[in-house]
Amino acid sequence: MNAVSPPLPLIPETAPFSAAQRSWLNGFLAGLYGGATSPAAAAGAAAAGAASAEAEDFPWHDPALELEERMALAEGRPLVRRMMAAMAQLDCGQCGYLCQSYAEAIASGAESSLSRCVPGAKATSRMLKQLQAEAPAAASQAATIAAPASTPAAREAGRPVRVLAAHRLTGPHSAKDVRHVVIDLAGSGLSYEPGDSIGLHVANDPALVAATIAALGADGQEPVPCPDGVTRPLREAFAQHCDIARPLDRTTDLLAMCAVHPAQAAALRALSEGTDGAEPADADLLDLITAFPSARPRLADLVGSLPALRPRLYSIASAPLATPGEVHLCVSVVRETRRGRLRGGIASTFLAERADPARPIGAYMQTSHFRLPADPAAPVIMCGPGTGIAPFRAFLQERARLGLKGKTWLFFGDQKRDSDFLFGAELAAWLADGTLARLDTAFSRDQAKKIYVQDRMAEQAVDLWRWLQQGAHFYVCGDAARMARDVDATLRRIAISEGGMNEAQAKDWMVSLARQGRYLRDVY
Predict the structure, then answer these.
(1) Predicted confidence (pLDDT) per residue in 160-193, tens digit
(2) Are strands 178-184 and 159-168 parallel, antiparallel or unpaired?
């Protein structure tokens, strides 16, 4: 029989606190009475809470929240913070910033493009434009905020590493192509810990570069200014320095101004404005050039409108103790046919198809908050479907090398057990030797009714709650748009059903869990 926590104390609405302060205190009390395992743990949570209270709070900085929820949480804040709330809250670095620094760069005038947030896509771009239009005075006032001195890309130009292998992990009948990529760090001076990510500077597909140059009627030798201010031949600019797969709204703005055909100019403006149904959707530069032949700006202007080719970040799937001098990755190769043309992810197809051990690429390490508990005896619950297994393979490698046994529980899921059980043999070995105490799997296509990791969590609600009451740290890695939100909702329902909480108490308890560093997400 599961032990139910006593009713949680709550700060009454008549208490002399603001709504934000009352919410935080209720969250702290929910965390304290819902699973703090010792006075020391409670004191640590209180100290962390006090430190957080002194710093500016960003309650919207949660990728599991919908845009409308994030904007509601930022209501009444300065324009720059509402702009931050419009971002996807992943801090993925694809825009060249973090969510906060991208908003600050826009507000300061250092960044003019409102469409850099890749995971936020059109919804984020539209909201940013709405905010700018609604509050020009606030935007002017916000311009006093200093622009960030460096972005993730600028902070580390990249050290040379070599891609040694990209073995296929999925079976021949899988709908996915997932690769086990091995990178040699020898001579790079780079180091990392389990939970960190690696940023890789890779080149665009030469075939896409050639097709784009041909569509422009150029020969590739034309001198053009690159995003870093250096003039280079067009072919080199497209191959190494410009993101031709993700043009910005300033590119479609430029093309609209130059379009001779009125209908084409109108269609380009619709793309810039993020109008629903505007075509071609998700266009790369070749799509735009092909679809709008009357729009032909000067090459230098066109190249100047393109964003810099940014490094791609991957969660590391190895531990230095187990693979010294190497980084292992778990990479899903992105391929899709759109408008009759096969498209590929810039980095994933490079790693799978074009990487050459004899030709180093640039890399940097991004230190993460995603860490194993300082106390090796603390229970660990990991939820990582698909390539979200990556950091948990690193965690388990680390524990295996240190000879640590104990309460470790993994929820893994994918489509089919026979073809998509990533690192299945390793997981089975860790389960057998006690490195991994529990393994629950969900293979969605192996039965008529689709089953996902959140369904397995719900089935194990009693034990999950018991582990959390014992001080377990809960980790999630993978898709932010669907899986992470579903896992978040399931965890909240477990707090209600097993912890005797109401909806508000469960939400506050989860906030407190995160503040204690016991609910960590690496989502994308």
Answers:
(1) 999 999 999 999 999 999 999 999 999 999 999 9
(2) antiparallel
